Request: fold
Amino acid sequence: MTTGRTDQPAPDQSHLGRSPWLVVATDFDGTLAPFHDDPMAVRPHPGAVAALRRLAALPGTEVVLVSGRDVATLQQLSGLGPAEGVSLLGSHGGQRWQVGHDAPAGLDEDEAAQREMLVTGGRGLVAELPGTTLEEKFAGVVVHTRQASPEVALEARAAARRLGKRCGVQVMVGKNVLELSVLRTTKGAALRTLIDSLGADRFRRRSHRDRTPGHTLWFAGDDVTDETVFRAFDGEAAAVLVKVGEGASAATSRVDGIEDVAQLLTELADAREATEAARPV
Reply:
């Protein structure tokens, strides 16, 4: 169960226009794109995508999409990827496709076999529970309960946990989704690893906290899995951690929805472009 506050203020990102090194990271579904009964029919907010493209083109600014989607699907639906200067953390951080690097490798033999067990079990699960649907993903399956009754959704959660126990994986519970993946990581851990890899220097200092300057994080997310990011970076005073929507959260600020995220990103792009334009030639 998610713990945290429900009374966060609106984000204050006024200092980020001048931050020398900034990482702008965001969840996709529910943060950039509204939910849809067909997971492949979602479309991101055009203003948010335009702002992310502008930010990715600026010096000292890294842009990252962090999602439960696999990187190929995330690239397809967002229209963003390493070619546009945007790094992708897919499968809740289990896949990393960073700017300047090759696409991530596929599953190994054992992981592929484990995934097949999940697919077979997941198909049987949704066949018995009306209103549930199965999404087959790169590293596992997602049981969607958005169209199921509350009673069936509870039954689906119990069934998913039994399937996970049989297959040796944990169930990640999100908004009307139950995800089982053979890749074991979190968004927070994966984003921390990516940021720690930035700005490597000749002294080989391991943590970005030890480098000069470090990278400041801006992150927005709406789901339970995004709480791992809020918790991983909650000790960094300059970080802007934005909870999107309702519910208790470890984030430091909050907005109502996708329109607000698009506005924040646009204002951030405006501020950083203005700072860059004012630099002496």
In short: Residues 109-181 form a domain with the Alpha-Beta Plaits fold (CATH 3.30.70.1020). Residues 81 and 234 are 27 Å apart (CA to CA). Confidence is low (pLDDT under 50) at residues 201-205. The chain is about 35% helix and 20% strand.
